[in-house]
Amino acid sequence: MSLSDSHSLRYYYMVVSAPGSGLPEYSEIGYVDDREIVNYNSDSSRYRPKVQWMKKMEDEYWEENTQRAKGNEAVFRHNVRIAMERFNQSRGFHIVQVMSGCELRDDGGITGYSQYGYDGREFMALDTRTWTYVPTMAQAQITAQRWNSPDIQEGERNKNYLENICIEYLKKHVEIGREDLERRVRPQVKVSGHEKGDTMKLHCQVYGFHPRAVDVKWMKNKKDEVPSYETTDVLPNPDGTYQIRVSAEVTPKDGDRYSCYVDHSSLEKALYTVWEPEKSSVWVIAVVVAVVGVALLGIGGFIFYRRKKTVYKATNTSDTSSDSNNPANA
Q1: Can you list the pairs that 15-19 forms with residues at least 24 positions away whose Cβ atoms lie under 8 Å?
Q2: Neighbouring C-beta atoms of residue 120, cutoff 10 Å
Q3: What is the DSSP letter of 118?
């Protein structure tokens, strides 16, 4: 298994407190890596495939998940009202969101996560070292205490989802979608530079590559790595490929040649794209960025993140055959 063979299965759940916002009152979106594979919302009331290869899943899969999603919808509608009460809110537009999922790394390791948000801020998350929920707002303490209680042990119960159900379905989805998910597309590279006082700022735009894993850095004379002062995240493009931008600040001396180094699984050997001042000054780079998470921002504006010192795990409140989870009442 190579680096590119690491895969993840994630689900985003969202409910809004009031209709009329132009958004479905409830929605679920499932992703393998950065590809949206399934979607359910309160307008369609059906669990639907979003990529062609997901249509290979059996009919029972769609019916079972449709019924599960309808159950989740009722739970989330209840939970947003409970959350509003905790914040002493009786009206207005409010959002409850959950992100849960698992990742199978190329070395066979498994990680997972479960994070709850309210009105764009993290509300509560699951710590898989202790299998307990950690509140990040005072209003979440009641829920965390109840879910962590000896009678419920919600976090402990969710180990089955991480270790079995989520990973099982991730492997199944990757198998039927492997041609799409693991296709190899060579990166395109553009370099540019502009003067800033006595220094030169160099920019390397790498785009149109697949899969996501890539190594990009600036080199001097092809042997000395140049520290980057700015590196973007690897971002998805509308066509399912990715892009990244790496910049460095240098003080050019006679004889120095700077090049952007790119290594990717689609390449037989790494690329070196040399920066030439007289050529690079005329480049105008315009690459359209379309992040999967922007779709989520558009439906609520809640950005989930992983804590640096805590590994979070996907939530599942019942041991069912579904690949996505059933959130519990707050």
Answers
A1: 15/73, 15/76, 15/77, 15/79, 15/80, 15/95, 15/96, 16/80, 16/93, 16/94, 16/95, 16/300, 17/80, 17/81, 17/84, 17/92, 17/93, 17/94, 17/95, 18/91, 18/92, 18/93, 18/94
A2: 13
A3: E
Give tens-digit pLDDT for 61-79.
999 999 999 999 999 999 9
Q: 126: which strand partners?
A: 133
Please answer whether residues 187 and 236 qualify as being in contact, where contact means their C-beta atoms are separated by less than 8 angstroms: no
The three-class DSSP label of residue 257 is: coil
Position 278 scores a pLDDT of 61
- Amino acid sitting at position 56: K
Separation of alpha carbons 272 and 266, rounded Å: 15
What 3-state class would DSSP assign to 171? helix
- Beta-bridged to residue 186, according to DSSP, are none
DSSP code at position 185: B
Handedness of CA 265, 267, 272, 273 (dihedral sign): negative
Average pLDDT over residues 264-283: 79
